[in-house]
Write a structure and sequence with these properties.
The complex is a heterodimer of chains A (171) and B (126). Chain A is α+β, with helices and mostly antiparallel strands and 171 residues long. Chain A is 25% helix and 25% strand. Chain A is built from three helices and six strands, in the order βααβββαββ. In chain A, strands 1-2-3-6-5-4 form a six-stranded antiparallel sheet, with helices on one face. In chain A, strand 5 and strand 6 form a beta hairpin. In chain A, helix 1 packs antiparallel against helix 2. In chain B, a hairpin with a 4-residue loop joins strand 2 and strand 3. The chains are: A alpha+beta (171), B alpha/beta (126). At the A-B interface, strand 1, helix 1, helix 2 and helix 3 of A face strand 1, helix 2 and helix 3 of B.
Chain lengths: 171, 126
């Protein structure tokens, strides 16, 4: 795990990794910046919390807004398709901001029922049909435009969507 | 530790919609934020304008802090309906998060976006 470094200014350069906050964590897999349950009435507060964490992690404003937009999109999908309550976790690892949205509900995957075994599908520009339509104007399009990595895991316990973001200019 | 995100739930809509008469048609001014909880409110307001005969709608976004993809799809639908009827829909002065949303969704290429309100204003290239 990279050592926490104090930022020397408000500008994030490609060589400076994201700051890891000095908050006590559960110790299991490193500290989570945030872990919260939410329903649709919480989306406003969720957006603010995400924007705050992304900014605290050293993302420039434009990038922090993209993180907020993407996480709101995933959170909204989780509420719509997952039974009304979902969970968000944000952490920093390996120089990237990782956000995971999970819901316990029925996963929508081309209308098929959830599979008996967990199915991990990394997102890729393959011709295989995606769980949500990929076209301009749709939320998934935006996620793929803005996130550096995007993974969907579905199973009998619901759906987990993980996205990660690096600061602009980072390799 | 699982955090609670919202301490206070007011039950008041995040989105305020005010309609005023403009030079070419109604100006629908959106203020606050538009997300999953306000989608129907926005859709109903635009449908009501179109149903009452409006053919040239201006959506003033200057007071809107946030718009999700569903909000923007609602705007796209209204734009399509109006275009089909020989009318227009125009977006006015999107602010940073909304402007970014429009760009990321590719919508700034579909719906005209204007950034100035004074006479002699220019169509925006965002």
């Amino acid at each position: 795990m990279p050592a926490a470094r104090k930022a020397s200014g408000s500008v994030v350069t490609p060589e400076v990794p994201l700051e890891e906050p000095a908050t006590p964590g559960n110790g299991a897999q490193g500290p989570a910046m945030l872990e919260a349950e939410f329903d649709e009435e919480d989306l406003h507060a969720l957006r603010e919390a995400v924007l705050t964490r992304a900014t605290a992690a050293g993302m420039p404003e434009s990038r922090a807004i993209e993180v907020m937009l993407v996480v709101n999109e995933l959170a909204s999908n989780a509420i719509r398709h997952g039974g009304g309550i979902a969970r968000l976790q944000i952490r920093i690892a390996a120089g990237a901001l990782h956000c995971q949205v999970s819901d316990p509900g029925i996963a929508r995957s081309n209308g098929h029922p959830p599979s008996a075994t967990p199915d991990q599908r990394p997102a890729s520009p393959s011709p295989e049909p995606a769980p949500w339509p990929r076209q301009p104007g749709h939320g998934l399009w935006m996620v793929q435009q803005a996130a550096d990595e995007f993974t969907v895991t579905t199973g009998p316990d619901g759906t987990q969507v993980s996205v990660s973001f690096t600061p602009p200019g980072a390799s | 530790m699982i955090s609670t995100l919202s301490v206070v739930r007011t039950g008041v809509s995040l989105l305020e919609i005010v309609v005023e008469a403009g030079t070419s048609g109604p100006v629908v001014k959106l203020s606050g934020e538009s997300d999953l909880t306000t989608a129907r409110q926005l859709g109903d307001a635009l449908s009501a304008q179109i149903a009452s005969g409006a053919r040239h709608l201006t959506i003033d976004l200057s007071g809107l802090r946030f718009a999700d993809s569903q909000t923007i799809r609602t705007l796209i639908e209204a734009h399509g309906t109006l275009q089909h009827a020989g009318g227009t829909l125009e977006l006015l002065r999107p602010q940073s998060a909304v402007a970014k949303s429009l760009r990321l969704l590719g919508v700034d290429q579909v719906i005209p976006v204007r950034t100035k309100t004074s006479t002699g204003d220019q169509p925006a290239i965002t």
